[in-house]
Design a protein that fits this description.
Mean pLDDT: 91
Largest sheet: 6 strands, parallel
Helix content: 40-55%
Strand content: 5-15%
Number of helices: 10
Distance between the termini: 52 Å
Radius of gyration: 19 Å
CATH superfamily of the largest domain: Response regulator
Structural class: alpha/beta
Strand order of the largest sheet: 2-1-3-4-5-6
Shape: elongated
Length: 209
């Protein structure tokens, strides 16, 4: 008796990407694309309906982000197996996706044979990281993490806000903002706000809105 196919939910906000990916996967005898979703919210509904064996997830989605969707899926379905397929290889985004519970992360430039290997490995319960992703993840894991409040402050630093403006927006004391900025400089190993903003954007800690 033949093994059951790997039932896949494809999540990407670009229709042509979903269609191309689904068509490429569906020709494999051991793979069946059971549903597609263009947003995190729709992905959750699709998972509840189809209970796929694997989710292929983009991270840049409208509304709920891919990382938030991963976390939401695993809260509701701890057994869910998620493979991230993204254009982006920012170390912070990779780190956050894996922290959220993704079991694999590959870049969209991956060749088809490697994607199929990643799909099958993650479906079996293993982990699969693109070599570039593995390098970036190792670099990120060697660094100290910013707190949620420090990320809030850094986001406003990137926008060019001064300490007084940040204090007003976050409704905290200016001296507290100065302390957060000092900690941010230390953790990012930078000397000034311009360098902090550059590093934050390059590593993907803060995304341009």
């Amino acid at each position: 008796m033949p093994a059951k196919p790997i039932r896949i939910l494809v999540v990407d906000d670009h229709f042509m990407v979903r269609m191309g990916l689904s068509s490429s996967l569906a020709v494999e005898p051991d793979i069946e694309v059971v549903s597609e979703a263009g947003s995190g919210e729709i992905a959750l509904e699709a998972y509840r309906k189809h209970h796929p064996g694997l989710v292929i997830m983009d991270l840049r989605l409208p509304g709920m982000s891919g990382i938030d969707c991963i976390a939401a899926l695993l809260r509701e379905f701890p057994e869910a197996r998620i493979l991230v397929l993204s254009t982006h290889s920012d170390e912070e985004e990779i780190y956050r996706a894996m922290q959220a519970g993704a079991r694999g992360y590959v870049i969209k430039t991956i060749v088809r044979e490697e994607l199929l290997r990643a799909v099958r490995e993650v479906h079996r319960g293993g982990q699969y990281l693109d070599p570039i992703v593995r390098t970036h993840l190792a670099e990120r894991q060697s660094r100290r993490s910013l707190s949620t409040r420090e990320v809030d402050v850094l986001r406003l630093v990137v926008k060019g806000f001064g300490n007084k403006e940040i204090a007003r927006v976050l409704n905290i004391a200016e001296v507290t903002v100065k302390l957060h900025v000092s900690h941010i400089f230390e953790k990012l190993e930078v000397k000034d706000r311009t360098e902090a903003a550059t590093v934050a954007l390059r590593r993907g800690i803060i995304a341009l809105e």
